[in-house]
Amino acid sequence: MTPDNYSQNIVNIHHEKKNQINVDIKKTVVGFILFFITFVILIPVILFKSQIYGILEAYMPNIDLIATVISWHGGPLKVWEHLYPPTPVTMYGFSSQTIINYMALLGLTYIITRETQRSGSMARGWSMAFIMLLMTYLLPGQFISWIMDKTNDLISNYFKFNFISSESIVVIMGFFIVATIIASEAYILHNFKKNLELMAKKIMTIPNLLKKII
């Protein structure tokens, strides 16, 4: 890797792209506030008051996936255009993405800590991270964006709708994918807790086994 490759951090990229990408700062801030009120406060409150705790538990760490979907479309008046870019090229997109990732990870770590305290078992709490980190944080985001891109290409090339745009159809599909991921995560955590805990306990014994061998 050359020294030039090392210089491609977000600060340098932002300065390189700032004359090419027009960012409306006020619109970007309004978009983030709308996202926060709607998806971080309002929907969780509705789920909590409806006592849908299983879905709420899986929902909170997945707000980054919701941000992925609405950023793809840009939202009304493109207020979410720079909310959660797959690859940030501006400081605004990077800052927004970082805050959303931080909130998602706070939700995830809270659930793990609460489960550990409630069960009195470190293995029980840690085991939830096996599923949640993969399904929430590490795997889906880039794949969702890719699927939405490919689906939009397919629809726009082969289908024409007078009453709805191809982008709107793709966004609906994106929300369906996110809902499926959240529901699947809730199902796995509810039905396979003992299996995951057993796996975690076995992994936690590895350091002691290594000490005996060494």
Can you summarize this structure?
The chain has helices at 3-6, 10-17, 25-49, 53-59, 63-73, 91-119, 122-138, 140-158, 166-191, 193-204, 206-213. The chain contains eleven helices and no strands. The chain has one domain.
**Distance from first to last alpha carbon:** 38 Å
What is the helical fraction, as a range of percent?
over 70%
What form results from the Cα inertia axes? elongated
- Strand-pairing-aware structural class: mainly alpha
Question: What's the overall average pLDDT, rounded?
Answer: 82
Number of helices: 11
The percentage of residues in β strands lies in under 5%
Write down the oligomeric state. Answer: single chain
Radius of gyration: 20 Å
Q: Return the domain count.
A: 1
Low-confidence segments:
none
Strand elements, count: 0
Largest sheet: none
Element-level helix/strand string:
HHHHHHHHHHH
Explained architecture:
Helix 5 (63-73) runs parallel beside helix 8 (140-158). The chain starts with a helix and ends with a helix. The model has no long low-confidence stretch (mean pLDDT 82). The longest helix has 29 residues, at 91-119. Helix content is 78%, strand content 0%. The chain is mainly alpha-helical and 214 residues long. It has one domain (3-213). It has helices at 3-6, 10-17, 25-49, 53-59, 63-73, 91-119, 122-138, 140-158, 166-191, 193-204, 206-213. The chain is built from eleven helices and no strands.
